[in-house]
Prior knowledge:
The structure holds two protein chains of two kinds.
Chain A: E1 2-7, H1 8-18, E2 23-26, H2 34-40, E3 48-51, H3 55-67, E4 72-77, H4 80-83, H5 85-94, E5 100-105, H6 119-126, E6 130-131, H7 136-153, E7 157-159, H8 163-166, E8 168-174, H9 190-193, H10 197-220, E9 224-227, E10 232-237, H11 238-247, E11 252-257, E12 259-260, H12 264-272, E13 276-280, H13 286-295, E14 300-301, H14 316-325, H15 355-366, H16 398-407, E15 414-418, H17 419-435, E16 440-446, H18 475-481, E17 486-490, H19 495-507, E18 511-517, H20 521-526, E19 534-536, H21 546-549, E20 555-558, E21 561-564, H22 573-577, E22 583-585
Parallel strand pairs in A: 2-3, 2-4, 4-5, 5-7, 6-7, 10-11, 10-13, 13-14, 15-16, 16-18, 17-18
Antiparallel strand pairs in A: 1-8, 6-12, 9-11, 19-22, 20-21
Chain B: E1 5-12, H1 17-30, E2 35-39, E3 49-56, E4 69-74, H2 77-82, E5 87-96, H3 103-107, H4 115-122, E6 126-130, H5 132-139, H6 145-154, H7 161-171, H8 177-193
Parallel strand pairs in B: 1-4, 4-5, 5-6
Antiparallel strand pairs in B: 1-3, 2-3
Amino acid sequence: xxxxxxxxxxxxxxxxxxxxxxxxxxxxxxxxxxxxxxxxxxxxxxxxxxxxxxxxxxxxxxxxxxxxxxxxxxxxxxxxxxxxxxxxxxxxxxxxxxxxxxxxxxxxxxxxxxxxxxxxxxxxxxxxxxxxxxxxxxxxxxxxxxxxxxxxxxxxxxxxxxxxxxxxxxxxxxxxxxxxxxxxxxxxxxxxxxxxxxxxxxxxxxxxxxxxxxxxxxxxxxxxxxxxxxxxxxxxxxxxxxxxxxxxxxxxxxxxxxxxxxxxxxxxxxxxxxxxxxxxxxxxxxxxxxxxxxxxxxxxxxxxxxxxxxxxxxxxxxxxxxxxxxxxxxxxxxxxxxxxxxxxxxxxxxxxxxxxxxxxxxxxxxxxxxxxxxxxxxxxxxxxxxxxxxxxxxxxxxxxxxxxxxxxxxxxxxxxxxxxxxxxxxxxxxxxxxxxxxxxxxxxxxxxxxxxxxxxxxxxxxxxxxxxxxxxxxxxxxxxxxxxxxxxxxxxxxxxxxxxxxxxxxxxxxxxxxxxxxxxxxxxxxxxxxxxxxxxxxxxxxxxxxxxxxxxxxxxxxxxxxxxxxxxxxxxxxxxxxxxxxxxxxxxx
Amino acid sequence: xxxxxxxxxxxxxxxxxxxxxxxxxxxxxxxxxxxxxxxxxxxxxxxxxxxxxxxxxxxxxxxxxxxxxxxxxxxxxxxxxxxxxxxxxxxxxxxxxxxxxxxxxxxxxxxxxxxxxxxxxxxxxxxxxxxxxxxxxxxxxxxxxxxxxxxxxxxxxxxxxxxxxxxxxxxxxxxxxxxxxxxxxxxxxxxxxx
Lengths: 589, 194
């Protein structure tokens, strides 16, 4: 046994090794990405690991491995499960033989996401067991247990950490890694794996019959537990339980829900021993609804009667405030404090020397009065530059562009999508746009990597998750195969060239694709690319503000004039757009 | 209440707050203490405002409650002011005398406080203000600023300098061990005079 200070996701990755995982797949998404990033970076591996092109692909790959009897882990963020929900729902019918854990990380408060959906609802919907750890240590221990539970129940198990588990740290007691030794073997059994109506009706019944046993076992195994200490009780789940434990006064009973489905009989026995019950959980009232079903005349406090919020994340002072409001605490132990007011905010920003800023600049120059649907990636930050009008989910740039164009709005529609997002779910939209004759310009922002989530390789990069060279998939060839005839690749650091190609596209009807290709500046720096910095000649600078409006963090205003700071990575774009010719390469002193 | 010693490290994405938090975590382990923490990952790291929570002796959740931190270490003046409400009464603030204005200040001409205005406000706290850039450069590399900051704050933490130095040495890149050790000691010497 060893104790280490680890990030939640690092602890989870280690637990997968302790469980002897044999097969790992996933799609990067904050806050889940580091699990595979840790596993794929190991110098030696006894398991297979891949970054898949999307979550549906990842889940189906891993499911098949689990059908072959090996232990499989599939990772994604909460919205990724929407993409993978088709195989998810029926995987509950087919079941598995090898342990299959679907790690789906939720993001209450949407720190890095487009919504705050609650994966526990998916587990309920699919009738699959779900583990919801309250600490880094629990995340570690339970991930290991999840494989064993999956094998015991013959079902995929959903493992649902939240941002405050994945990206929190703690001193964790680790076990020994147990290299995966299993060799997959597929046993043909059409009644299990071919879900024609005649088979699936029987499988559905079997899934339902498993439920009572699962509920009992989750209590027996201690995932759901309680301690009776008085006549009032707090029931809490996930990370909320750790906030409650920090402030719960003596004399109030405590129930901790760490796994679903919850045994109603067991829950009812507990609730009925109390005069008042408060439910603390993040996001959906998943536990509260069950508590209300069994509570009878016992008053229940929670979201449904306005004591706790449905949205956002919990925190110790918020939990204390809810407890005060519901009469479970007399005063909030954390007196309110007021932050300093009116400070300029510091949101994330595209890096100095990012190709996307240059591409957005050229798009705006050519298409000044256009509609700009965009997608999910670093480039969503183009919002600050006024070149992102819509973002809804992965792949929804080309589709939204087509919809707007067909709606009859007379303006040009120019959408942007990153290379990884294009592979994820962009291609279908492109095919559809060509097939149905949309008039749109599609700009693929090709930085050769999945940057925002931490620089994972994708089919464009030419290397696999484990660093093995592979065939790079050609964006140009895919676009042409989809039927696009105008496909041009440009270097976004060449502003004139990019503007010229965009202008050409503007004149043409149909679907036009421009691939703006340049390495992500962080990857360029890591791979040793060195470019001379640029500087402003204060004699020539007229203070017109053109370069400042470009929005690069390397450009500041000192007095009335522009000045370039040491964040400059030498992309040269500001020098190209300066009307006074005042910006040039730094001359060595 | 848990009685944990809560340290908040703040700065701008890319300034090395995560390494600083790892060093504190490792030092806690070597002293056999529990430790919990939380930090910013993902999109916010792209030049945004970032925070690392470290709760020495923490046994429950990872989040520090505003008004409860015993120590605030800030790599930037503006961020020190932004998070100043996290400090509890009598808490200590160790701040790098360095101001990077958000780009939006220039692009959208948003009003921003000056360096002097910020420092005047910070002086309401038990403040240790240091020029970590210069000290790090003297130690051998401007990149060692985060270690200088940890050194300056070392005397305000319930951890021994020996375990902190050992944690620094085990977590920084091998080629930079000596520079970072020197940076830590120089920061510590400065912090001792604050």
